[in-house]
Fold this protein.
Amino acid sequence: MLKFRLFNIFKYIHRNKSGYPYAYNKNSTYLFVLWTLIIHFVFLWGVLDINFHSPIIQGLPVVPGLKDAPAKRLILLVADGLRYRTFRENIPPYLKNITQYKGVWGISHTRVPTESRPGNVAIAAGLYEDPSAIFKGWKENPIDFDSVFNQSRSTWAWGSPDIIPLFTKSNKGNVYGESYPSEWQDFDRLQNDILRLDSWVFDKYLKWLEKKSYTMKHMDGIIFFLHLLGCDTIGHSHKPQSRKYIENMNYIDQRIEEIVQKTEQFFDDRSTAYIFTADHGMTDWGSHGSGSTDETETPLIAWGAGVSSTGIRYDVDQADITPLISTLIGRPIPTNNEGVLRKHYLENNDTYNAQALLNNLKQLSYQVTENRILSCGISDDFMDWRELTLNKHIWEINEYIKNGKMIEGITEAEEAIKLAKEYLYYFKQYQRNYFLMYMTFMWSGWIIFLFLKIVGIPRKKIKPSLLLLVDIIFLSSLIVLIIRYTGNSGYNLRQLSYGLFTVISLWLAEIGGTIFLLFIMFMGLTYRAALSAGMLFIVVMQKVIFNKTHNMLLWSGLALAMYPLLPIVEPYPRIYIVSISICIMICKIALRHQLKYKKIIEIIRLIITGLVYLKLIDGRYWISWIILASAPLFIWTYTVNPKDRIEGITIGLFCPLSLLSASYEPFFFLTLAMHLLHWPLSIKDCDKITDNILSITDFTKASFFMLYTLLCFFGTGNMASISSFDPVWTQHFITVFSPFVMSSLILFKLSIPLILIGCASHILGSRTAFLAVLFLGDCLSLPLMYYVNPYGSWLEIGSAISRFTIAITLPCILLILHYFSYPLMKFNLNQFEHLLSEKKHIV
């Protein structure tokens, strides 16, 4: 009976009457597409969840602050986008005097990502940002974890509307903030008033000092947060080595001297501490995000009450600023802080410093315990040996302090804090290996399943008893998994979910009943030059495979192979290169045989594009947007003949691409279009004969499409250039800082060559070729999964995520492009006019 039931349940999966698995009927196709979408979503989400799951733990115990703090108040000045190299080479006079005679200074090493929000979070919370905030939204998502502002008695903050609201949404209601209008962040208008953003912040603080400070004059635990966006804004538009960038830095120096004098004059108690730093740096070309040294090194200067005045340089991690702020004003360290208190920044008070380091150790030890409970699923009554070690150190440090042995207590506290950091890392990574194992087996099972779906291997020779045995094994595995994790008092639902998907995926792979060969091809995603070698190989294959090959197909293929060898496109505008490409396109259209009115309109459109690019016309308000919006209309005036329509798509999208370009991107686009236009149409006709049979040719064509798609991503750039951002790219459309609009324009620019690939797939593609792309792309994504991790530079992390995401979504991208490009390929305005004329005739 059991045998009969199991085989009735699975017989539609195991085989059909012909002996071949997975018949191409309507229902099974829907089930296959549904499972494809589910398994891809689970795999993509799972890999990101493994590496970027939120480290935030709510409800951690708060270590009480210290009494008799050296400072009653602290002024935190964050110069957004101020890199250390420019600051060191052009250090302004007042801050230079502070570093030499009145304080301590060093380099603050930032971590990933090198953006404003995570940088300010690291400074204020001691946490290198909750990575899951990437999926929640960076701008409007408030800081939902502890910070020095929350722990202060009161905090007043002034600065950018993108940063200040993040901290003023505190549940405690002790953080007060004010921001200038977002319209002020206009990269173009600020050229005439570059100091406006920072002067507003300083003026607001001085007005507060004059009108509202009397009630706070004798209170302690106060923080003033001044967020200065001037350097970042000017760095984007004029670059960080420019004269205006240095002028803004000197202006900040002058205003800091002014507020220090007026603050000391008003409070008159020598109980104010000052910290000056930056959230991130900036590259030479005015962007941040790629993780270079210029982006991760920022200046740090501390002076005032409780701060050492040795003038010696001590480098720190950015998160180490958090416990320093808490210690100087005697407030509790934020509960999720990972920073380490650096005693070199504190004045010589061994008793206070020993107690401060002990508080830092206790705060880290609480995190170790909570992470152990979450990761290992063990009750509170059990203590790991690592926790026992930390507790022993805490007891010994307390004994040293009681006996007046402060130096010994400080030394042991510093060593114990190092151990606490190691233990914290261990428990945060505890489950990662289990998750990776689950994901590996799950994806391997899917690839086997897909391979057998494609090739259709007969299963008549497989014994039913063997299939029944394996079915029982997998059912038992599911039951064991559920019992294993629900029977544990601290079971983790995430681990159980991935385990279940792993078993189900392997089960479906077993149903295929064979072994497959996993082919790894990821060199092109890692090394850009490998795409050149691949393109050369494609040229050779096209010469061999195609009976009649146009010489232009081969020459354009060789030209495409050169682009990955060129330097990546940087935000420095190469105006002459883009202008030459526009002139070439004008000449090409002038020589084409087509209707005169259409030719004139297209040439006028290109001339206007050139004038906007040369900034002879301001296109930001409507001209550039009209050029962008009118692209489909120009495309639809071409006939639906495949090659005519692709040529129309090339001409229609060329203008908006040029306005978003900085160098040779238009030439790459034209070369790619020329290559696709000279593909032999006979290759599509051959596919109609064997549309349901996968052949080696299908895998060959699939590899062609995959390489073309990768060339669209990396033909003009690399992972760093994709991850980085610069307003110069969108200057002809918008100059007011708007992350959503600017990011949308950049994504559109990246998608223009991909749209061309999608349109070409209507000519060159087939259903079996898409299955081959799906198979090859999924094989490619498996090894790339192991390169994704949450540590390293932003360049390393961002590149690993980009490689994996591109590989896993590549088949979906091609499929989406194929269907989304359908209106561009099939809709025709001439047909619409014909229908209208028929209607008038009938009337």
Summary: The longest strand covers residues 297-304. Residues 1-24, 457-462, 509-522, 685-691 have pLDDT under 50 and may be disordered. The two ends are 72 Å apart (CA to CA). The CA atoms of residues 524 and 545 lie 23 Å apart.
